Write the structure tokens for this entry.
Amino acid sequence: MKHFFTSRVRVVLVIAVLLAVLLAVVSSLTGLTLPQTVVQGVLTPFRAGVSKLVDKSQQLYDYIFSYESLKAENEVLKEQLAAIEDEARDAYATKQENERLRAAMELVNTNEDYKLVDAYIISTSSADWSNTFTINRGSNIGIEVGMCAITAYGELAGLVSEVGVNYAVVKSVLDSSLEISATIAASGHSGMVQGGYASGLDGLLRMNYLPSGATIRNHDQVVTTGSTVYPRNLVLGHVVDAGFDDTGVAKYALLQPAADVRSLEQVFIVTEYNNG
């Protein structure tokens, strides 16, 4: 046991001597004192760890700053896009209004016997076989029941059925209770047009009582014949189909309405006209 203890002491002394020599060499090479060398050796791992932590913190800060910057830039771009979309909508609305005004001027110029009152549609109603819309004009400016409503392009939109002081209700051409005397422009054949609700043809018109020998072609234009209610040659629609009615004696034609009453914003009420 004494011999073993002596061997361990020798080993420790040898290691100590070697460390002392190593530290002396390092000290001479680096210019540091022995205590400085020892402290440097002890602190170096900690310094490396702190350096890595600082680097990671800097990276995290840069990421957060970059994210916030991109987020702010994204919000600015969204606002700019929204502003551009608003400008585009305004420009489109202005263009549509200008087109309507030009068409209205042309309508007046080509129909000098018309007296027109412009009106905007403020609500619509559709139930069963009925289809109506309400305008912002009424009896205070001369609107009366039985006056017809047309578009700026001379298309028949409907007939005034109810009037208030500052509003009026118009039965649209899709309303099945309206019957309008009409003519196929190309052939001159006449019949009666009404809304297709009565026959389950939602969105279409039906022209009845056409002669069995009538030649009817797709895209033929159908116009008003002219009466005490409707001026002559208002466009009602265009033929999309035809056939014989249930009797097999007379023909009928299905029409696509010229006036898209479901998307109309403005109409003109014909207060006076002359069919000549």
